[in-house]
Amino acid sequence: MIDVAYIALGSNLGDRHAQLAAARAALGAMPGSRMVAESSIEETEPLGPIAQAKYLNQMVAVETSLGPRELLEQLHAIEQRAGRLRRERWGPRTLDLDIVCFDQQTLDEPDLHVPHAELPHRAFWQRELDELRPRD
User: Fold this and answer.
1) Which region holds residue 90: left if phi is over 0, alpha if psi is between -120 and 50, else beta?
2) Which residue in the list 16, 24, 86, 93 is annotated as catalytic?
3) Positive or negative torsion for Cα 90, 92, 97, 101
4) Residue 99 sits in which domain range?
5) Quick one: average pLDDT of 122-136?
6) What is the total count of domains within the chain?
7) Is 84 one of the annotated active-site residues of the chain?
8) Greater confidence, 52 or 10?
9) Is residue 41 assigned to a domain?
10) What's the predicted TM-score (pTM) here?
11) Quick check: is 60 in a domain?
């Protein structure tokens, strides 16, 4: 099944623009996938209790044959290649990739929720998603 996945990109370490550009290229090169749209890039305050630099955030729409679990594995591999270290929750990161939602699929498992459980609480995700989704 081909579906459109909406993936949030974030970076607050190193060359943030370069991190997002490399992530977009890697997302478009995933097996059975192609980039179909990207939102504007915006700078946001960090979330959580840890003091850190501001983030650059963006969302992309990727047409893919990957299911949510397979997509998550691909995203983690892209983050790892970008030098992402998972040391502390809400900590700074070179690259953060999240599945925000799919057009047609949902999933509710202990370690993966699609749509993402934080979508209602992140205004920047909602703005970026509005840029990408066709209006009726």
Assistant:
1) left
2) 93
3) positive
4) 3-131
5) 88
6) 1
7) yes
8) 10
9) yes
10) 0.93
11) yes
